[in-house]
Design brief:
Blueprint lengths: L5 H10 L25 H17 L4 E2 L3 H16 L1 H11 L12 E2 L1 H9 L1 H7 L7 E5 L2 H4 L15 H8 L3 E2 L18 H17 L4 E4 L2 H9 L1 H7 L8 E3 H8 L25
Parallel strand pairs: 1-2, 3-4, 3-5, 5-6
Helix pairs in contact: 1-12, 2-3, 2-4, 3-4, 5-6, 5-8, 9-11
Length: 278
């Protein structure tokens, strides 16, 4: 998000204040560590714990709109709550910065923040321009698994995005490929296989007559939006599916100007839907 998926951040910063959510940037916060997990799990735990400790020191909850970051932070909290010796080891390192990870901060993703904290009633009253689209949702693997550490949505039949979208005036419809991966986890090593997965899911969505695909993960958005043309080339298909962040459709429903929501940064054909009239 900080380096290329600006539309997600722009749309979140524009929409959440309208819903009585105050966003506070944390000085000194760093990467969650998840990209290094397969190389050095201790480093990942330390970095996630450090970010949590910084938030706890200011008595703040944590908003992690990236599904991968949310997983890393949640997994760290789960491990340290159940492994006292590891918790002590991590806190001995954090003590060098006068930090301590206690596990008191709550960790939210975009989906449960909107669904469980803001609530559907407040969302409904805030809607000015209902978004009348038939949409497919994509939660992403990191948001639904592993369920044993606690994820924001049900791993088998997630419906929170659907509930939010209905409140915004859209018509979400379940489809067989809903929980299929976007392909991003294998992109670095098997790019053709990764883009095949991307293209196959987009083609299925297109064939089922959806107006748009809605995502809540910057990696998934990058695959379906920025790499849509390449994915089509890989599977020998012409793909033309508008791909939105949930926060962008939220902003449109709230009556916020589309440029403030970063729609000009989307690579897919979002303008074909005449979003300014939604």
């Amino acid at each position: 998000m900080p380096t290329e998926q600006y539309a997600y951040e722009l749309s979140l910063r524009e929409t959440l204040p309208h819903l009585d959510i105050e966003l506070i940037d944390l000085p000194g916060a760093s990467c969650c560590g998840e990209p290094m997990k397969s190389i050095n799990q201790l480093m990942t735990l330390y970095l996630s714990a450090r970010n949590i400790a910084i938030a706890e020191k200011k008595s703040l909850d944590i908003f992690a709109p990236c599904a991968m970051c949310h997983l890393a932070l949640t997994e760290c909290q789960h491990i340290l709550q159940h492994n006292e010796s590891m918790k002590n080891r991590i806190n001995s390192l954090l003590a060098q910065e006068d930090l301590e990870m206690k596990g008191t901060s709550r960790i939210f993703h975009t989906v449960d923040l909107l669904h469980d904290v803001v609530g559907l009633d407040l969302l409904k009253h805030a809607v000015k321009n209902p978004v009348a689209l038939k949409v497919a949702t994509h939660y992403g693997c990191h948001l639904i698994r592993p369920s044993e550490i606690g994820r924001p949505v049900d791993s088998e039949n997630p419906q929170k995005m659907e509930n939010i979208l209905i409140t915004l005036g859209a018509t979400p419809v379940d489809y067989p490929q809903k929980l299929d991966c976007c392909g991003a986890p294998i992109l670095a090593h098997l790019p053709e296989s990764a883009l095949t997965k991307t293209g196959q899911k987009l083609q299925a969505i297109q064939d089922q007559g959806f107006d748009a695909l809605v995502t809540v993960c910057p990696w998934c958005q990058k695959m379906f939006d920025a790499r849509q043309q390449k994915a089509g080339e890989i599977i020998a298909a012409t793909l033309n599916i508008p791909v939105f962040y949930l926060s962008q459709l939220l902003g449109l429903a709230l009556g916020i100007d589309k440029k403030k929501l970063g729609l000009h940064l989307n690579h897919s054909s979002v303008n074909s839907l005449e979003v300014e009239e939604l």
